[in-house]
Design goal:
Blueprint lengths: L4 H32 L3 H27 L10 H15 L5 H32 L3 H27 L1
Bound molecules: fe (ii) ion.
Length: about 160
């Protein structure tokens, strides 16, 4: 793709703000998911990832700040869709708890896949733009997302 440095950087900033908004949507939703599931292992995994998610949001804020940008201003529509699906499942009071938990774990896997691709592409852009420190921070978050996905896959196999 032929892109000027300026449009590449603008796209990178947009990706970072989009991720920041995605992480903040998750910070609001994960406690509701943790409350709704009936497995203590799933609850523990979600709460652990909630703490990581808060750090990931801080990392994005830091990267943007170092580039003289604020973190707000973009809404992540992809995450909005994924999070509203989780909200709908939580509201299904008729759903047996085991099935509800299984569906929320599967929803969590979808979310992790989405975030993994977003962090991979943001880290790649950071490297291309010569922003090694930003790339390192993004890769740190990427590794956490990959680990969280693995945990959810293991839990899904047990349910
Ligand atoms: Fe995340």
């Amino acid at each position: 793709m032929a892109m000027t440095l300026d449009s590449h950087e603008k796209l990178f900033i947009h990706e970072l703000k989009d991720l920041y908004n995605a992480e903040n949507q998750l910070i609001k939703t994960l406690p509701k998911v943790a409350k709704a599931v009936n497995s203590s292992e799933v609850k523990t995994a979600i709460n652990k990832h909630l703490a990581e998610t808060k750090e990931q949001a801080k990392r994005l804020e830091r990267i943007l700040k170092e580039m003289d940008y604020g973190a707000s201003g973009v809404k992540c529509l992809g995450m909005e869709g994924l999070v509203s699906e989780a909200d709908e499942i939580i509201k299904e009071k008729e759903l047996p708890k085991d099935l509800l938990t299984e569906t929320l774990v599967s929803g969590g896997q979808k979310i992790e896949h989405y975030e993994i691709v977003a962090y991979q592409s943001a880290a790649k852009a950071a490297r291309e733009l010569g922003k090694g420190h930003a790339a390192d921070l993004l890769e740190q978050s990427l590794a956490e997302e990959q680990k969280a996905l693995l945990t959810l896959e293991e839990l899904a196999a047990q349910i």
